Amino acid sequence: MKLTDFDYQLPKRLIAQEPLANREQSRLLVLHRESGKIEHDYFYNIIKYFKQGDLLISNNTKVIPARLFGYKKNTGAHIEVLLLRRLSNNKWEAMVRPGKRLKVGQEIVFKPEMLTAKVLETTDTGEKILEFSYPGIFEEVLTSLGKVPLPPYINKGIEDPTRYQTVYASNPGSAAAPTAGMHFTKEIIDELLDKGIEWTEILLHIGLGTFKPVKTEDIKAHKMHSEEYEIGIEAANKINDALKEKRRIIAVGTTSARALESGYSAGKVISQKCSTEIFIYPGFKFKLLNGIITNFHLPKSTLLMLVSAFAGRENVLAAYNEAIKEEYRFFSFGDAMLII
Q: What is the pTM of this model?
């Protein structure tokens, strides 16, 4: 398939620049993937589309202040760093701008005596491996110096950083939020549980793999970046019980979907801590999912390709055109979509 097969025209006014005052007030487009039928609703009503025994699976990653600003030691040249993946206690894979002339051994200063980094190597895809030096605890230093890395299509900062987190975020490590989950409130989750709908959490730390743009016209030539995921024993047991009992399994977000499909083997989900480079596009055969809660994604993105693989490209693009017609809010702070 071609990259242009996943393009669509979106008026800029529909790109949400800030979250709604109340998470659950987002609009909800429901796409029935077998028939292509579309319904319009609000997220606070999402419970009515589920039934007792359904299992929802969310990604409990937490966004860290992964954006750092510093300068090259000796020259003073400005450097911007986006932390992507922790490799060990002090070593991170990072996107660095400008990075082409940043040589191995170069030292970056973020704040003298508080945080510096040395370039250890350049990866095949152009990212840098950095080794950080700091006194005390890295997370505390990062909280002091780092910024939440909002997507580039958001033109202003966010007053309350918790609004770029899900209410169940608990495992720090992501450079971006699993935005489909940001519509949930604790009250909605409690209502789901009261109705007999199950909820479990897995983990995928979102890095370059999720939001790296596709630049090849033949989408099959695109290589996903590695991201870390973890499926715990309790989550694996719940998922495998649902599979055995043929109950519906719904992923909260594309990152949950990628982790689940990565962890599936020989008819069941394996409890494991691993990395994945899985790239899901039309033609992919889903092993266990019956539904996905998601947002409206960028044109030509791997996320749009994933939902197109699940519901059919024609169905998804028709739903997007309907959402544009009805003036839904798009992207990270935008409205929600339920595919069942």
A: 0.93
